[in-house]
Task: inverse folding
């Protein structure tokens, strides 16, 4: 199982059966399909790219073509049981504003992100003196969509600043998956490649 | 059965029951002219109702009896097309108030044997939909798989979903609005004033003289036609090109291709459209405001709906812009409805929904197929 699949299955494990879910940046609708099948959710997606929206619509998913940076205002407060932002927060222009919007819209929010504090990333930067290129972060700095990369510690700090409650954290690398009640241990900022957070206001 | 009434060969339904209008007035009996394509399946579950726009009619995918041209949505409706007539039973009816066989101001008033003209009651989008519902029931259809329409057709779609959600599985409003804006009303008023300023209009009673206000109607059409295009599409198609000449004529003939094109649009329109129908139908659109008709806000109107929605807008449409369509999406989302939305990238203006837009075809095909297969 590759890390991407681990990321999806961790998210699925945090979603309650039959809940109303919004997947922000839903892509081809892979996660929504997975959630519909496994958790019988009532799912909705938000996706900016036309071809991806079409794929979702053809699969019978309900998806709105829009931009997470401005179209989240479409949704009233607490209009979803769960709002998911999977591997996208680091690619948004204003992560802080987006996170606040997600918390406003969802009773619960799930955010997954690549950990820039992972030891391989650190080592890569230390040894080469250049922006790290790893399996997970595989594009040059001038090409990558990831304009706001952060570490697990950075994200936890942002949640503290916004008074967002971390209910659960799942961290993983190619070898292990770990689940923490509330925040992860400090060492995870070094040994985890990715993290999934379950948040509430 | 298709019959030939007033040289319009299509199917007709004579509704013997009075139709009470939104205004409180009543039409005692009326006729609806319609076309169908494909076959109704055993469970009567494969119907797609297409609602036409202001200048459209029931000939969505068949040869027009007056112009001889192909159907206005030929590219979308037919075997192997997104609205696949091998799979779906397609119904398209001329709207109440229209002039292609359905009862309207050019029809004969059975009470006095004269043409209705302005004695025809003012109708609304809700009245048009109520007449369609009667037709659908007459055809023995309990539930429509999808109701789809662009522009004024989209208003009918919204009205169907607001008034008769249990009669539908899905609704596809395209390039439309939940209420006519001041700009929309303004352009319609230009058209109406052009018709009424034509001396041949005769206070609406031109049927007595046998000369219809073609000048006024063609100007109305020319004005409206510009609103269906975009600066980009006009520039691409015409630019400042001259019509059949090398130099400016220093006069007021059609020097530019765009002028000649518009004049042609106006002239051909009057052959197939009735001036009074144009007044009545534009009025119905102007009066359209779902919140006023239903005395609730948009979100409340759709609260609890089980219908699936696909809302479609086009980036280059300035008449029914993306923002207007997004208002519908916003309300449906807030109401907890199952809604998809696409904003098709196009520079063709409002008419884009009638033109070649492959992404629109793909979206529609995907949505309809998934709704169809969800019925098992």
Result:
């Amino acid at each position: 199982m590759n890390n991407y699949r681990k990321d999806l299955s961790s998210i699925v494990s945090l979603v309650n059966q039959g809940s109303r879910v919004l997947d922000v940046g839903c892509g081809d609708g892979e996660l929504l399909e997975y959630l519909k099948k496994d958790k019988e959710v009532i799912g909705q997606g938000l996706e900016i790219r036309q071809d991806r929206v079409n794929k979702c619509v053809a699969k019978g998913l309900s998806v709105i073509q829009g931009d997470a940076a401005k179209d989240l205002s479409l949704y009233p407060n607490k209009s979803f049981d769960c709002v998911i932002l999977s591997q996208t927060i680091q690619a948004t222009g204003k992560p802080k504003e987006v996170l606040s919007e997600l918390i406003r819209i969802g009773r619960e929010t799930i955010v997954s992100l690549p950990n820039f504090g992972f030891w391989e990333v650190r080592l890569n930067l230390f040894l080469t003196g250049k922006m790290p290129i790893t399996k997970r972060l595989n594009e040059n700095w001038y090409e990558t969509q990831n304009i706001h990369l952060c570490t697990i510690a950075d994200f936890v700090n942002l949640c503290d600043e916004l008074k967002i409650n971390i209910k659960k954290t799942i961290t993983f690398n190619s070898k292990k998956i770990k689940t923490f009640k509330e925040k992860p241990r400090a060492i995870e900022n070094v040994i985890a490649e990715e993290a999934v957070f379950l948040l509430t206001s | 059965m298709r019959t030939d009434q007033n040289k319009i060969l299509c199917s007709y339904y004579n509704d013997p029951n009075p139709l009470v209008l939104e205004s409180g007035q009543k039409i005692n009996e009326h006729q609806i002219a319609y076309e169908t394509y494909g076959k109704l399946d055993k469970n009567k579950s494969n119907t797609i109702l297409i609602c036409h726009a202001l200048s459209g009619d029931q000939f969505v995918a068949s040869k027009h009896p007056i112009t001889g041209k192909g159907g206005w949505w030929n590219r979308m409706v037919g075997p192997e097309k997104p609205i696949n007539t091998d799979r779906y039973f397609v119904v398209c009816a001329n709207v109440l108030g229209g002039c292609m066989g359905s009862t309207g101001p050019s029809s004969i008033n059975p009470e006095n044997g004269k043409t209705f003209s302005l004695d025809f009651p003012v109708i609304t989008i809700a009245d048009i939909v109520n007449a369609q519902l009667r037709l659908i029931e007459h055809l023995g259809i309990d539930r429509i798989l999808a109701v789809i329409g662009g522009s004024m057709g989209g208003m009918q779609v919204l009205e169907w979903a607001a008034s008769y959600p249990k009669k539908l599985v899905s609704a596809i409003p395209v390039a439309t609005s939940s209420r006519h804006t001041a700009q929309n009303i303004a352009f319609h008023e230009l058209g109406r004033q052009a018709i009424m300023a034509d001396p041949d209009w005769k206070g609406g009673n031109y049927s007595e003289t046998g000369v219809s206000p073609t000048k006024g109607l063609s100007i109305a059409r020319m004005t409206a036609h510009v609103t269906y295009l975009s600066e980009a599409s006009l520039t691409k198609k015409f630019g400042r090109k001259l019509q059949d000449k090398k130099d400016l004529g220093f006069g007021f003939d059609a020097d530019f291709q765009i002028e000649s094109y518009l004049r042609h649009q106006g002239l051909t329109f009057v052959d197939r459209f009735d001036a009074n129908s144009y007044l009545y139908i534009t009025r119905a659109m102007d009066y359209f405001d779902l919140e006023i008709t239903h005395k609730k806000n948009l979100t409340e109107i759709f609260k609890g709906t089980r219908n699936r929605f696909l809302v479609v807008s086009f980036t280059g449409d300035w008449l029914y812009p993306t923002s207007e369509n997004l208002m519908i999406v916003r309300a449906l989302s807030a109401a907890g409805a199952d809604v998809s939305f696409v904003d098709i990238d196009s520079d063709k203006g409002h008419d884009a929904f009638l033109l070649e837009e492959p992404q629109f075809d793909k979206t529609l095909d995907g949505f309809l197929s998934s709704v169809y297969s969800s019925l098992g």
Remarks:
- Chain B has one domain: 2-183+283-374.
